[in-house]
Amino acid sequence: MLLAIATCYEEPTLFHDEAPLTTALSAHGIDARPVVWNSPEVDWDVYDAVLVRNTWDYHQQAGIFSTWLDLLDSLNKPVINPTALLRWNMHKSYLREMSEQGINIIPTVFVEDAQHSLHDVLNQQEWAEAIIKPMVGGSGDHIRRVSIDDCTKHEQSFGWLVDRFGMLVQPYLPEIEKDGEYSLVFFNGIYSHAMRKQPADGEFLVHEERGGSLKPYQPSDKMIHTATSIVASVKQITGILPTYTRVDGVLVNEEFLLMECECVEPELYFKHGSGAVETLIRCILKALG
What we know:
Blueprint: E1 2-7, H1 20-26, E2 31-36, E3 49-52, H2 62-74, E4 79-80, H3 83-89, H4 94-100, E5 109-111, H5 118-125, E6 129-134, E7 144-147, H6 155-164, E8 167-171, H7 174-179, E9 181-187, E10 190-198, E11 213-216, H8 221-238, E12 244-252, E13 255-262, H9 276-288
């Protein structure tokens, strides 16, 4: 079998943490090759299946990404995770569906049209400070911390972002600065390992490229149970159990609140998860039949 591992121009040979995937797959008789997902030179018809991994720029060209998924569907290529799940998950309005299923998410206002000003949202919710983020986004792009006192200067850009992506408005949680965020990795709905990610002093973004740091973390049984129920909710809503997913959240008053359930291209921190690569390989083999 010839398997394309979809990646991006920034990581054309795969992110260093994921490089072992190709060797591990070859041991199972699969010829796995990193392929830049939006390269015009790729003939996708020659591949038997596609594993989506480091497509970390998809949010910058979401329309092209959707068209690429359409192409894979037209070629009847098995895709991991499946294209229907990727389409659902790439737009953060999925959080509203999960909330309706009883999942505790960070309180969120979904702004999808220009009828709502940023000031009105904060005023109505009685939030002194808030985080705004695009409904289609990644890598911390266009995420800002705003306050009721300074949001006027953000109104023009907020309106532009609403028109382009739709926006989430959430209360600023000081727990993120103090304790950080928690990421729990799952393969076929089963918990594998977890990381704790913290922002730099005085910051709120935890991404390493933005000064954040991370380290292995042993979550409580309660946190694992909550995150497991979140992954189960994905299957309940979409009918698809993700081959891989990462559940990101924050602890507020000892309750785990969902920030994202990432099924498109999450970093999976293989080097911090004992046996994680082989676990994912087994799940891939199962998905490919």
